[in-house]
Amino acid sequence: MPATSLPEDISPLTVNRLSVYLRCLRRLQELGETRTSSKALARRFHLSATQIRKDLAQFGEFGIRGVGYEVAELKEGLETLLGVHRTHPAVLVGAGNIGTALARFPGFSSGGFRIFAIFDNDLDKVGRRIRDIEVFHSRDLGRVVAEVGAEIGILAVPAAAAQENCDALVAAGIQAVLNFAPVQLEAGPAVRVKNVDLLIFLEELAFFLK
Amino acid sequence: MPATSLPEDISPLTVNRLSVYLRCLRRLQELGETRTSSKALARRFHLSATQIRKDLAQFGEFGIRGVGYEVAELKEGLETLLGVHRTHPAVLVGAGNIGTALARFPGFSSGGFRIFAIFDNDLDKVGRRIRDIEVFHSRDLGRVVAEVGAEIGILAVPAAAAQENCDALVAAGIQAVLNFAPVQLEAGPAVRVKNVDLLIFLEELAFFLK
DNA sequence: GATTGTGAATAGATTCACAGCT
DNA sequence: AGCTGTGAATCTATTCACAATC
């Protein structure tokens, strides 16, 4: 029986691993497996069995001692924990290369997120649609964010425009920002910001090249 | 005087922060600042002054006690440490949404990386060019990777095709893989893999929404 | 007999506090 | 006087080892 209580201090590292576990369970379900164990998951997906158990233990008891975990049950438990059992409304700011790719990315819609609007200040793009999502002018950001009740803002604008667009998102009441621009954004403490800097990923790889 | 010695056990966390510091220094240089200090950096970019010093200390002495750091000198030191003082040859596998956006992304070329070839198995795409980079058929991956001497492979293919393409990259002698597919890849211990899963980023944000 | 869940032990990362330079 | 570089102290994360359960 999943308890799904929500303790206060959970590390992002743990949360990221929960996402990984969720992927693994979805994969097992595709393969028709109905039951698993921390050891089986660890072996197959190169994880740590102890860590899986410790991570889950923070949220309740998901397994049966001596037996293991019910795949469907644990999967649903993780979906609930991560909050992807419902769909989160999001908006995308920036309809350039990366923004367009994100708008077309099918994974979001099937994974608990939906982009309801795109913003750009290029008048050639305003009014067009990317995958059925309308592109609005940036000046309408506040209004549209409120209308669609967006919780998450995805920032895919040039570095120089990132802070002002972040400010606009925050002013419009957004709660979390996924930022693809290579700048350290300044948002209030109430807004969670996650930075995704493609160059930093490559630089990490470059560092470890011998 | 930068020592730029290379100790053996450096954490990826440290390396990512070095990348952040490098961005900060570039920004200061744009603004015409010629000298800075750990405290000044920390205040301006919301970092930890002690941590900046500790991170740098692992690689030598970059500053002057009582004075601070020379912006240009520290910037170059970090570029050398991260290995971006030279350009790393890379290839991109997958010319779909994300692959195309990556190929067009100007940041790579200006940041120490260059994509020399794109691979796809869609014959409609083979032979075309994206931003002057030729799209080859995936069957030519081994030959072309060897020809251009690619060190880094960027994987932007569907999940189901990720492992086989990773295998092909590894067989061709690639040393590091940046993987955008939502799968835990199996590469040898000699190959460094960095996973970038957009859904996991959003799930982290979703978790922390109240 | 097998596996979970967990306190204790270990390893790793960050912060503190100050000696050592300029 | 002010800042770097660093050992010591603290905090965080992971792993070990085993009691509890099926």
Descriptive key words:
homodimer; 210 residues; alpha/beta; 7-stranded mixed beta sheet; two-stranded antiparallel ribbon; 18% strand; elongated; disordered N terminus; DNA-binding
Shape of chain A: elongated
Number of DSSP E strands of chain A:
9
Elements of chain A, N to C (H/E):
HEHHEHEHHEEEHEHEEH
The proportion of residues forming helix of chain A, as a percent range, comes to: 40-55%
Main β sheet profile of chain A? 7 strands, mixed
Provide the structure class of chain A: alpha/beta
How much is the average pLDDT of chain A? 94
pLDDT < 50 runs, ≥5 residues of chain A:
1-5
Note down, in words, how this protein is organized.
Two copies of one chain form a homodimer. Chain A is an alpha/beta fold and about 210 residues long. Helices cover about 45% and strands about 20% of the residues of chain A. The first copy, chain A, contains nine helices and nine strands. Chain A has a seven-stranded mixed sheet. A two-stranded antiparallel sheet of chain A has the order 1-2. In chain A, a hairpin with a 2-residue loop joins strand 5 (about 130) and strand 6 (about 135). In chain A, helix 1 packs antiparallel against helix 4 and helix 2 packs across helix 3 (about 50-55). Chain A is elongated. Chains A and B meet through helix 1, helix 5, strand 8 and helix 9 of A and helix 1, helix 5, strand 8 and helix 9 of B.
